[in-house]
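Side project, low priority. Logging it here so it doesn't get lost.
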Amino acid sequence: MQALMKICHTCQQTYSDNHEFCLRDGTRLVAQAGDTRAQLAAGLLRRFRVIRRLGEGGMGAVYLAEQIAVGNRPVALKVLSRKLLDDPEFLLRFQNEAASTGRIHHPNVVTIHESGQADDGTPYIAMEYLEGESLSQTLKRRGALPVPEAAEILQQTVRGLNAAHKLGIIHRDLKPDNIFLMRGDEDETIVKVVDFGIAKLRESGTHTQTGMVLGTPAYMSYEQACGMRSDELDARSDVYSLGVVLFEMLTGSVPFHSDTPLGYLRKHMMEQPPAFRAVKPELAATPQLEPVVMKALAKNREARYSSVLEFGRAFAVAAQGPGSVDALTPLPPTSVIRPSDVESGPRAAGPSQAPAATPIQPKLQPPPPPAPAAGPTPGPVTTSRGTGKSRLALWVGAPLLALLLGLGVWYVSSGTHQGSGSPTPSSPQAQTPPANPPGGNPPGGTGTSPTGTGQQGPTGETPAKPQSPKESLKDMRVEAAKRQGDEYFDNGQYVKAINAYKAGLRLAPRNAQLLQAVRRAQTAQATERKF
């Protein structure tokens, strides 16, 4: 029997069947098509008429075929490579792909028509045949997309992913290759999310190996790069990957670049995405877009959007323009000033009305009242009564005012002479009680600080107890162990990095940063062995 050969589609180098990755660039190798097509003809010839090969992946090959029993319906036929039939884990994953995707019924997700195993045991999936091109092909051909087009592609992708997330299905390999673009009858864009090949139902956690790195490095989420177990991933992992895809749609480039898969993992874990203006200066005209994308790319998944729908809505609002957020809040009603309103008397005006009202008010002032006529009239009687009352108030109020002023001067002068021995409530010393007597408690009996001053914070809380020299020394040793481990990790010395992190954990067993660093180094070590 002729030995199988594999090929690297990046550099076209061929390898024997016992290689999994290209030794030059780390690309996953695929089997050459001749052997798979012969198996297909032998096992599925009675059900499908093969037209041509569409492509190959890690699980096998995909063909354009006609489903004979359904009026020669065109389908995309995905067939598992024969050499993998002896691997029960791989077969379960293939069947899981068919079961997962088959449960999703949504216009933005590829439809599964049929799945099963042929007479010779070859597993296959017959899915909806899509005519068009992948988002990856579009980006290579056109570069960065206009904001409205990127927003439309994102909205449809979000709706398809949300349908999967409602069923507990996480894609885990979201990238432009798995977002397919079609044209509708009215030349509109139709998006289809494809290839849930490594998707996993939450209730079937035993079908995925613990610690296995799943996904494409350039679009992998922070959790996947850190080696988080597959049963711990949730929809926010897809939010991160979709954020990488959107970053590429807007700028024409992914946020992180590396020559090796391990380099991508390191950048996802340790670097922040670049600003839009550093990648595509033209996007400076729409600054409201960048915060939306950066929130989806947050390292801490608690800081991301809780769902892809929330992500999609936030970007849709930002894509409408700087004033779109304000447009969501109704403005107060606008007041219209009529000439009759101005003539009726003065009224309060807003800032925009002040310039117009200022020159008009002097002209609208009423004329001064005429001088009172001479002679005895009822007016002088009223005036004399008012004058009498005013004089009485003056005789009574003046002594009271003088008394109050004297009391105030006495109070201030007495507080000044007493000094620090009896501070006033407004003085800074009033907040500090007297020092503790030797061997006793301060006045009040409670609330003393460890330093013996009895001083409290503004809210009455006792200040935190300072660390002892022993505790400070332990923290310094833990930090030194982490720094040493980081240096080893950056140099690719993962065994030494793990040992350094574990030395720190012996001093602080519950240190979250060290625990995460150990997991990260172990994942990097396992990934390096694969390559």
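Brief comment: Residues 378-418 form the longest helix (41 residues).
Revisit when time allows.
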